Amino acid sequence: MAEGVPHETPMVAARLERDGRLAGHTGQRLSRALVTAATAGADRTGLGHYARAVAAAAYRRSFRDAGLAIADAAESLPESDLFEHMVTLGRRQRAATERLAALQAAGL
């Protein structure tokens, strides 16, 4: 990781994923090792709250990313593809909404 860049677990995981290092069997092992190292000694009573906060932050980022994707599509896609592109993004956001609701319903 670059000097001056945060080295918290989510940032390390994001960098590894961006670099393609979390793919396949080796990537799964690396991901598990990262989670194990990050949660060692963690207070289990706070894990649900932490998981919900992380999921909520990712949920909000997904809306920002969808907005950027729509704006980019407006500049680059043929007009005939714009609506379907937006529908695809909407389906992803609905799935994200359902995942977040399931976490919340589970008490996380």
Automatic annotation (TrEMBL):
Molecular-function annotations in GO: helicase activity
Keyword hit for Nucleotide-binding: yes
Entry keywords, A to Z: ATP-binding, Helicase, Hydrolase, Nucleotide-binding
Superkingdom, taxonomy of origin: Bacteria
Stored InterPro entries: DNA_helicase_N/primase_C (IPR016136)
UniProt-recorded name of the protein: Replicative DNA helicase
Species in which this protein is naturally found: Rhodococcus coprophilus
